Design the sequence.
């Protein structure tokens, strides 16, 4: 007779113990969930955001070490924030900013210029002023998208950013080495930002994606956070773009 014994449980040491993670745009959605997961992995967390009250609520919820309220698209504020940090940090996650959608006939050109400048200049600012604070082997993690890879009316400027950010990521990886930099390209993620963009069409969009996506569910902020923490931990990854869309690109938008 064969006697089967249960395998002993595998004990896993948290992977960010003794490290410090800065989350820019950490008061809600993907940023907040990344902060929560980083804390669960043993990291100290510093949160930033524009709304001081919401930021403090998020900090209390995750047990953040400190907070700083400023507009991440203000390059001078980014420079001042990193200059104010005491001691080195290990990782920076940036989720600030959002897409701009409008057909050509309805486009606000001032908003369009802002959208074209916002993401690449935020990446450049964080890389310039933040990389010097990051220990060798640490990483800067930014958010991009996959939804604008296929031509469609109203997404022209977002398409330009979808194409540009991976190239910028690759180039910056050479300039800031041995600090690493990676880009997460997400499809639809069920966040407060998505809710604000879709309004009363949100639940319809959720139902469409549940029915069509190969994974049979909608991608959530915790999915993206898990990838962000992996990019922090895996020191072989730099200059790359990592898609996370539940197979959305395989079935069309």
Sequence:
């Amino acid at each position: 007779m064969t006697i089967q014994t249960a395998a002993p449980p595998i004990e896993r040491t948290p992977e960010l113990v003794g490290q410090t993670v800065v989350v820019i745009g950490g008061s809600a959605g993907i940023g907040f969930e990344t902060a929560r997961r980083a804390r669960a992995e043993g990291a100290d967390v510093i949160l930033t955001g524009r709304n001081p009250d919401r930021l403090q609520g998020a900090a209390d919820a995750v047990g953040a070490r400190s907070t700083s309220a400023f507009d991440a698209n203000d390059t001078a504020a980014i420079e001042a924030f990193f200059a104010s940090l005491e001691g080195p940090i290990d990782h920076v996650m940036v989720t600030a900013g959002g897409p701009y959608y409008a057909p050509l006939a309805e486009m606000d050109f001032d908003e369009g210029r802002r959208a074209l400048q916002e993401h690449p200049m935020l990446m450049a600012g964080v890389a310039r002023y933040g990389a010097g604070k990051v220990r060798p082997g640490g990483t800067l993690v930014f958010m991009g998208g996959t939804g604008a890879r296929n031509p469609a009316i109203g997404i022209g400027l977002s398409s330009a950013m979808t194409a540009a950010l991976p190239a910028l990521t690759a180039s910056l990886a050479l300039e800031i080495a041995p600090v690493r930099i990676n880009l997460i390209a997400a499809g639809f993620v069920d966040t407060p930002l998505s809710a604000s963009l879709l309004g009363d069409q949100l639940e319809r969009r959720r139902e469409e994606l549940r029915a069509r996506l190969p994974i049979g569910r909608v991608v959530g902020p915790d999915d993206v956070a898990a990838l962000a923490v992996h990019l922090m931990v895996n020191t072989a990854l730099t200059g790359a773009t990592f898609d996370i869309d539940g197979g959305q690109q395989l079935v069309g938008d």
